[in-house]
Design brief:
- This protein has a single domain, classed as Porin.
- The protein is mostly beta strands.
- The protein is built from 1 helix and 14 strands, in the order αββββββββββββββ.
- The strands form 2 sheets. It has a 12-stranded antiparallel beta barrel. A two-stranded antiparallel ribbon has the order 6-7.
- Strand 6 and strand 7 form a beta hairpin.
- InterPro entries: DUF3078.
- This is DUF3078 domain-containing protein.
- Keywords: Signal.
Length: 287
């Protein structure tokens, strides 16, 4: 039921803010490359503060790299999103705030106006150990490339524009990798480092302008395994809202919901808000 409600909310939001297609008077670029990084720094300090408080220093660095290729009937979109953030509490030491590496590649061959034969590839993991701090002593719950997810498979892509697309892949393979310390977790059997699944994958992207200098991006991935726990659906839904102050300064809000019974029995939520520096380190358009 939670998964159904989440999907209905996504579909409602995308239909409510649907935009009309604009005629493009310029030739279609063959290559569009855009690489940007952002850095958010937060600091708080207290001294004899009557209501209390804890001194903290935090910094987050994220990189978003996009490669888009179009020629004749070929469409190939690749995106790398990676980030790492850490905070220091005066009494508790260092803790992670962001730890993410994700590489997406979607190849399409056009069959009609908006439809493509497609092939999807996705690699998702993290860089360092993660801890559950509710345990004493703290408990290691993840590590570098543990878990890591490799997903790939053929399908059909409906692409209205670079800002709106849905990919349907009914025969998608997924490998889950863990090291020896996590054997038996994340859906991997005991005495094994990998798990294989075959299932249905639905992924979509919708990016639009809410108002001047405010942009909203919705990313949805749904996966159902045919081989294990048929009917159970993993959901990963992320919303990014960017508020542009000027060319170099943006305010970013991120909301992410993950439902994955192999990783956690509870619904996972992540929310981030920050104001920081943005820089385009690689921007190129080739006709």
């Amino acid at each position: 039921m939670r998964r159904l409600l989440l999907l209905l909310l996504v579909l409602f939001s995308t239909s409510f803010y649907a935009q009309k297609k604009k005629k493009d008077t310029l030739p279609i670029p063959k290559w569009k490359i855009n690489g940007k990084f952002s850095f958010v720094f937060n600091q708080s300090s207290f001294s004899n503060w009557s209501s209390g408080g804890e001194n903290t220093v935090a910094g987050n660095l994220t990189v978003d790299y996009n490669f888009n290729y179009k020629k004749d009937n070929v469409n190939w979109d690749t995106r790398m999103i990676t980030g790492y953030g850490i905070s220091h509490f005066s009494e508790k030491g260092h803790r992670k705030t962001i730890d993410r590496f994700e590489l997406n590649s979607l190849f399409g061959y056009k069959t009609s106006n908006y439809w493509f034969f497609s092939f999807l590839g996705n690699l998702k993991s993290q860089y360092s150990k993660g801890y559950n701090y509710t345990n004493e002593p703290k408990l290691v719950v993840s590590d570098f490339f543990s878990p890591a997810y490799l997903t790939f498979g053929p399908g059909m892509l409906w692409k209205r524009s670079d800002r709106l697309n849905i990919n349907i892949a009914p025969s998608t393979a997924r490998y889950t990798f863990v090291n020896d310390d996590f054997s038996g977790e994340f859906g991997v059997d005991e005495d094994s480092n990998t798990a294989f699944s075959l299932g249905f994958n639905l992924s979509g992207l919708y990016k639009f302008t809410l108002m001047d200098n405010i942009e909203m991006e919705n990313i949805l991935t749904m996966y159902s395994d045919y081989l294990n726990d048929v009917g159970n659906v993993d959901v990963d839904y992320q919303t990014n809202i960017s508020f542009k102050v000027n060319k170099s300064i943006k305010m970013q809000m991120t909301f992410q919901t993950v439902i994955d019974d192999n990783a956690s029995s509870s619904v996972q939520f992540r929310e981030m808000f920050g104001l920081g520096l943005n820089y385009n380190f690689h921007q190129k358009v080739t006709y």
